[in-house]
Write a structure and sequence with these properties.
The protein is built from twelve helices and 13 strands. It is an alpha/beta fold. It has a single domain (8-323), classed as Rossmann fold (3-Layer(aba) Sandwich), CATH 3.40.50. The strands form four sheets. It has a six-stranded parallel sheet, sandwiched between helices. The chain has a three-stranded mixed sheet with strand order 11-8-13. α4 packs parallel to α5 (137-157) and α6 (183-196) crosses α11 (304-317). The longest helix has 21 residues, at 79-99. It is globular. Residues 9-230 form the NAD-dependent epimerase/dehydratase domain. One of its GO terms (biological process) is 'de novo' GDP-L-fucose biosynthetic process.
Length: 325
């Protein structure tokens, strides 16, 4: 399949961790017309603003990486924000893309779309087969709606709107907020502070037993572009009817305890690790079945230790920026 590098590609959420990685890799591949907009330039929750943007810019392709995201604490504290903002962003962008004859769109979802007790590793077909994890149900429902929006526009209008479901992501430009971040940036920040303050103990939320899979954002960006560039005939030949989403992950997982021990080594922390079992663990295990993506020809290449070292190096060089999030 010949790739047209002159197509006008809109990356929604280009300042976020995933969006920025997609922009970097599109540039490296030679794409010449990458369109971006900051929140002050374009409020994606405003239907009118999004409609005008698409009418003005004549977009050819869309990577929908914009979303309101956060960890367990943020999801518990701000459920209305998570479901409302994500629903509005998805509905506005996907509908405006259709209205303006954008044939190709990539929607980035989340592994939290799968049931709390889904079969492990989680197949794409596990979607909507059981109850969701309660701590992030509003966010998960919004992401499921995004998948179904893509499927519905494909069914009704013949669009080519694809969805990728990443596992837990980390890397440069992550959110290192002390309360609203995900587990890896939260632990990197906490262990770094412990080293700086010469503490002899770091306390980690939960029992340490849940198992999680982690994928470096550069791998996620590479997978997103790879799936977007797949020939439509190949894509359809490898999908089940009405199944537009593809899992993206590393294919291996580890316990939270093992993650914390690795982060301690990466940051140089020599003290004790303690686990506060009174805090929520979340889903017992979340491992993606990535066989479908591997059959399509893509596999993750960055191992966890190397990825953590890369993320920590970025954090050290951008502490002021990371603290402001």
């Amino acid at each position: 399949m010949t790739i047209d590098l002159d197509q006008k590609v809109f990356v929604a959420g280009h300042r976020g961790m995933v969006g920025s990685a997609i922009v970097r890799q599109l540039q490296e591949k030679g794409y010449q017309n990458i369109v971006t907009a900051t929140h002050s330039e374009l409020d994606l929750t405003s239907q009118q603003a999004v409609d005008i943007f698409f009418e003005t810019h004549k977009i050819d392709q869309v990577y929908l990486a914009a979303a309101k995201v956060g960890g367990i604490h943020a999801n518990n504290e701000y459920p209305a924000d998570f479901i409302y903002q994500n629903l509005m962003i998805e509905a506005n962008v996907i509908h405006a893309a259709h209205q303006n004859e954008v044939q190709k769109l990539m929607f980035l979802g989340s592994s939290c779309i799968y049931p709390k007790f889904a079969q492990q590793p989680m197949l794409e077909s596990e979607l909507l087969t059981g109850i969701l994890e309660g701590t992030n149900e509003p966010y998960a429902i919004a992401k499921i709606a995004g998948i179904k929006l893509c499927e519905s526009y494909n069914r009704q209008f013949g669009r080519d709107y694809r969805s990728v479901m990443p596992t837990n992501l980390y890397g440069p430009y992550d959110n290192f907020h002390p309360e609203n971040s995900h587990v890896i940036p939260a632990l990197l920040r906490r262990f770094h502070q412990a080293v700086q303050e010469d503490l002899d103990e770091v306390v980690i939320w939960g029992s340490g037993t849940p198992m999680r899979e982690f994928l470096h954002v550069d791998d996620m960006a590479a997978a997103s572009i790879y799936v977007m560039e797949l020939d439509g005939a190949i894509f359809k030949a490898n999908t089940q009817p009405m199944l537009s989403h593809i899992n993206v992950g590393a294919g291996v997982d580890c316990t939270i305890r093992e993650l914390a021990e690795t982060i301690a080594k990466v940051t140089g922390f020599k003290g004790k690790l303690s686990f506060d079992a009174t805090k929520p663990d979340g889903t017992p295990r979340k491992l993606m079945d990535v066989s479908r993506l591997e059959q399509l020809g893509w596999k993750a290449s960055i191992n966890l230790k190397d990825g953590l070292e890369n993320a920590y190096h970025w954090y050290l060089g951008n502490i002021d920026q990371a603290r402001s999030k």
